[in-house]
Amino acid sequence: MAPRKQPNPIDVHVGSRLKLRRTMLGMTQEKLGDQLGVTFQQVQKYEKGANRIGASRLQEISQILDVPVAFFFEDARQPADDGLAGVARASGFAEDAGSAFAVPRAPANEAHELARAFSRIDDARIRRRIIDLVETLADAHRH
Question: Cα(142)–Cα(129) distance, rounded to whole angstroms?
Fold first, then answer.
C-alpha cells in the first residue's frame, strides 16, 4: 500500500482559516456545504487541507463567508525554497520564499474558541482593548 501523502501546509492554513471564519459566523459544515453544493464531508476535507480548494471555489467561499479571498492567506508563510522560487520571483509570481511555513503556537481549537467568543462582543472599544491586551501579552512572552 502506498504511503499517504501529507497535505500541503498552505492548503492546511487556508482550511484552518475557512474553519475559523465559518465557526465565527456560527455556520455548520452542512450549511456551508449546502450553499457550495458539496457534502459536509467535502467541507471537512477542505478545512483539514486534505482537499485543495480551487480558485473559483475559494472565491465562492469568500462571498458566502463575507471576507476577501486574502483572508484565507493571512499569516501564512511561504514554504522553504524548493529551487523554483528564484524563477518564480524573477517572473513576478512569488513572494520571498526564504522563510519556512509558520505553525500557530496555540492549538487550533483554542484559537477557534477565542474567535467565537470574541465575535460575540458587540462593543468595538472592548474588542480593540482585547486585541491590544493579547498583542501585549504575546510580545511580552516572546522576549
Answer: 20
Q: Which three cell numbers stand for residue 72?
A: 484565507
Tell me which residue has cell 467541507.
Answer: 43
Burial of 18 (0-12, 13-18, 19+ CB in 10 A): buried
pLDDT of 36 over the 90 cut: yes
- pTM (predicted TM-score): 0.59
Using alpha carbons, select from 22, 81, 10, 93 the residue that is nearest to residue 52.
Answer: 10
Whether residue 12 is predicted with pLDDT greater than 70 in this model: the reply is yes
19: closest CA among 104, 102, 116? Answer: 116
The torsion region of residue 77 among left (phi > 0), alpha (psi -120 to 50) and beta comes to beta
pLDDT for the residue 87: 41
- Grid coordinates representing 94? 512569488
More confidently predicted of 90 and 67? 67
Nearest partner of 95 among 86, 82, 83, 108, judged by Cα: 86
**Residue 32 neighbours by CB distance under 10 Å:** 23
- The predicted-structure confidence for 57-73, as pLDDT tens digits, reads as follows 999 999 999 999 999 99
